[in-house]
Amino acid sequence: MKIAKTGWVLSFVLIGLLSFPVLPPAHAADAKVLKISHQFPGGTADEGDFRDRIARKFAQEVEKRTNGALKFEIYPAGSLVKSKQQFDAMSRGALDMSVFPLAYQGGKLPIANITLMPALITSYEQGLRWKTAPIGQELTKALEKNGVKIITWVWQAGGNVSRDRQILNPEDVKGLKVRGAGKSIELMLKAAGAAIVSFPSDESYSALQSGVADGMWTSSASLVSYRLYEVGKHVTTAQNKTFWYMFEPLLMAKSTYDSLTPEQQKIVTEVGASLDSFAVKSAKEDDRQVAEVYKKAGVAVHDMDEATFEKWRKIAEESAWKEFAATVPDGKRLIDLAISVK
Prior knowledge:
By secondary structure, the chain is of the alpha/beta class. Helices cover 46% and strands 15% of the residues.
């Protein structure tokens, strides 16, 4: 009787234990998935457009250092959020991260136009020094006020590709339909006699192919990754001098950043900063690659020299720089802060 009672109790306990659900490991249940959307062609962490690679390298390293507590989904080519809507999506907390050409936001955030101000940046090293300079602090403050944080500082130089004739000197653009990719560049090109057309980078191929644009400026990476050598006959590279430097940082929604633990925030900040040097190295490689790829494709390759740069700078000062100083709050002071970075 005693044995039977003991067996009955054990059976009851076992049935009770089996009735409880089996829980997954705590770290899997706590994983937070962040979404990164950008406009550039997709690839891998080791191959492809370096701006996509920055997103992937960042994701891999953060996931590793957080032991999988933070995971990432990457959506290239505007496949999750359209190119020019990504900043606003981060501001609203509808998107976690993007590699974003900041000048796209210049219409709503006027200070952003200084990040594609013609002939203002003269080297990658100078651009990266903005990070710790007063001009960089002003930019950081403006973005955070709009709900977005800078994670990695990415500058990309660029050149132009054209359908029929070289575009090297200011007089070369007269009467042409061209894309400058930002308000400030476009003001300078218009002052030189060009007609302006606008479209995001991922529409560049069709615009040149169809004749919507006779020529266009874009980053060196985009000149290659969008295969514009198939639809152009002339290219002017950034490997020597260029008036075209664009700020294309890796950004995070401030609401996303604030939702992370202090340790996760530290990891995100450290990994982001560690990729600054990778961005500079990769951008310089792209500038050199443009000349190689276009020459191989049979496109005429041109390089800008110091004298030609100075011609463009003079036009820029009298058009884009002057307009920014006159219309943007503290515009003249911001231009002076940028010039003071050597």
